[in-house]
Amino acid sequence: MEDTYVSFGNICKKAKIELVVTNGISTSCCGQIFSSKGFADAHHYTVNQTIEKLFRDSNNGSIPIVLDVTSCTQTLLNCRPYLSETNQQHFDQLKILDIIDFVADMAIPRLTISQPKDKVVFHPVCSVHKLGTMGKLKSIGFACAKQADIPVFAGCCGMAGDRGFYYPGLTEAATKRESNEVNQQPYSGYYSTSKTCEIAMSEASGHDYQSILKLVDEVSAD
Amino acid sequence: MLADELEKILPTERIKARLIDRYAYASDASHFYLIPKLVVQPINIDEVQRLFQFSHQREEKLTFRAAGTSFSGQGVTDGILADLSNYWRHVTPEQSGKTVRVQPGVIGAHVNQALKKYGRKMGPDPASINACMMGGILSNNSSGMCCGVVNNSYHTLKHLTFVLPNGQVYNTEKAEDYLRFESESNDIFEGFIKLNNAVRANEELTLRIRKKYLQKNTVGYCINSFLDFEHPLDILAHVIIGGEGTLAFIAEAVLNTIPDLPYKMTGMLYFESPETACNAIADLKTTGAEALEFMDRASLRSVEDMPGVPSFFKTLPVQASAILCEFQESTETALIEKYQNALPVFDKLPLIREPDFSQDSEKQALLWKIRKGMYPSVAGMRAKGTSALLEDFTFPVERLGDAVVDIQKLFEKHNYKNGIIFGHAKDGNLHFAVSQSFLTQADIDHYEKFNDDLFELVIDKYDGSLKGEHSTGRAVSAFVEKEWGPDAYQIMKRLKALIDPKNLLNPGIVITEDKLTHIHHLKMMPIVEEEVDRCIECGFCETHCPSRDFTMTPRRRIAVRRAMKRLEMTGDTATRDTLIKEYQYDGMETCAVDGMCATSCPVDINTGELIKRLRRENHSNLQNRIALFLAKNFPLVERTAKISLKMGFFSNRLFGKNFMHGVTWGLRKISGTIPRWSKHLDKPVSARQLASLSNGNEGSAKVLYFSACINRMLGGYLCIIWQYLQKSKN
Questions:
Q1: Mutate to test the interface with A, among B706, B719, B727 (most CBs of A within 10 A)
Q2: Confidence of residue A199 (pLDDT cuts 50, 70, 90)
Q3: Is B131 part of a structural domain of the chain?
Q4: In this structure, are A51 and A124 located in the same domain?
Q5: What are the Cα distances from residue A55, in Å, to A48, A49, A65, A86, A148?
Q6: Which helix (H) or strand (E) holds B148?
Q7: Are B182 and B308 within one domain?
Q8: pLDDT 10s digits, B652-697
Q9: What are phi and psi of B349, to 5 degrees?
Q10: Are B91 and B109 in contact (CB under 8 A)?
């Protein structure tokens, strides 16, 4: 299975988007892992560190930042109250894009979709609802497949980052309705935008859920 | 023990008898509170029959509950509570969507979703349709904004399958069941013939029944079925609708559906006063409007700060009132024609602003948001420690304006400051919301006096109905006879005695000897904490919660927080401590803190945030310090995680792809802190691999790639952190 990051690189190449990767950012974290467990100090430390690095590596906010996991984007976009005064000012200058924004607004307009899929299904993660990007997710589906379904019973998969690894019963119960619905018919692809949610939905449905980056990479021409 | 006895008839995992289960289910959306002896979750008719038998043999009270979104208190009990919300979810459209077959645990909106592709929907359209379930929609004879008195559950029922307290199951679809009913439940069959004769022979009663159901009415049993149907089984099936779970268990229903009209024209009409607005209803009804929603000045004021609400709301006259008017049609041409025909009617009305109608779905959504935001707005702003009460009266449409003024006077007399009045004016159905504390006896006395005055007004002055669509419940059971008169009440009493002679199925609802049911078992709202105090326990959050079928729901998490506080106030610390202990897993650890509950909460509570805060408070200093250490050494942690992840992949390569899955599964049984391996994990990605992506594309755009740590190192195995923290606890 090819990794998400490879697809991201391919898409940027095809879309002729200049891609910057720095070592600092590649060892950073949005802090959700600490905040969801209620570790305030660790969370505050982490987001402050991350915003500092993002500000520095994005050339003081002039380069848009793309996150490849929607739940992390949502956490980062809401970290302002936990930042120091300087970091708050820096944060305000950052342009943070979720993977859905990036694909819908930057990538697809620059790509040639040469071989759209037949029928795919999405699992919209909770953050899609909170960020209000369901419309953009649908537009990606519209561009990349003849039919892109969003299940009626799509809901929170209960993975909650890593909680589902410790309480598998929670994830199993949470995904049952949606995976039953998805398994009513065959799809040529199963996609989402957060790795752990993809794992939860894959476990539940028996199909391989992948990042939408993978979908976009596969349907676009060089 | 009751639970041990029940284990003979139900599997252990569906008997919830811990303290936390009992306290979690003590609340529903009403202002009543009773702690059940235990909670059971039957999943088929066979189990329901056994429950009835158990209830009879042991003389135990039995109450069925679906979503628990009712306002009147018919869903709480101090007996055995049978929860249907996790099962009974089948919904099947039939005859190209002309009818739909439903079970009691299906959410109303899911029925409509299933019908959507046929361009149909079910008749009842309660405001709680996204949360309430068919069991309640049928048992309360629900209606709603557009439904009126013709498309409610009673009138759209086609067939019903139900279980009687005597354990017999009948299905009105089967011809043989009509014969079986006569032979097997002969006492009931004969009793119904007698009751039917008694109703039909009483001309005054017949007229009374016909008159009552010209308007919305859910007080008492639907005894109109004695006039509408001939065969005792059909009569019985229709009194079970609106029977509030006191007559039978509804296992399945087939409902006739109605067209879901896609073309809509919506607008707001503004008037100088509630009287002028209400006096316009009769004329407006002639236009064929599907919805005519009335809002008084206080209602309009309650939403004036909501985003999108026009600024002129703030400068409307002091008594101004509005009517939200919507036309619906199957084609655009028909819609325009309907609207054009309504214009001359509008011209004759004493409007204080030009009517502004629109087909634009965003504008329509705003108008409905205004209308639907009123109750939540009052509920969200109420004082801590109070309940948000929502009344539900029906008045003769032609006297609606006078009734509004009379209620406003009562608000003033009894010093209710933020009372708002709104409702389905087309059907003479008014809701009003006030906040009320039940903390002290003085509060309860105050409420009782207000209530007495109100009920006198509705019944004696207007011959209205105390509950247009919310059902009798505990709220008005003591007033059924006063509203209906002695003849009708006797019929209802005999009916209940015939079907449930031991009075064990949801007793005290509809028929009661207690003349003070409306002020007994009131739900006291202790002041706990920010998120909890705002909660009205409506249950709208539950369907979105990932742990709903596993441990708890946001509403129950909050209800138990309140219960702990109540116990603390009464000095019962032993019980409270047990709750705290049980809350650790059910409440805290199995909450995904995803916050999806907030997306449907009318008062904007994110229970996930509450749980996160409780987790914060739960951590020791040492744990916090360890977490901070890990945060500071994140690159190191990441490397360690990657190594263990790589070892996992290596082991799988050696011993087969399911090896780690099996091993972690086994280890988890020994230590809960070992995370479960997933076959869907990816190999870790190094910073070097990521760096190789950098390209020098001279394109029109440039981005900085932030590959999230869960994509880099786990996809998922950040567990190292968790393990450290779990160990540090011990």
A1: B706
A2: confident
A3: yes
A4: no
A5: 11, 10, 10, 11, 36
A6: none
A7: no
A8: 655 555 555 555 554 454 444 555 556 666 667 777 777 777 777 7
A9: -85, 150
A10: no
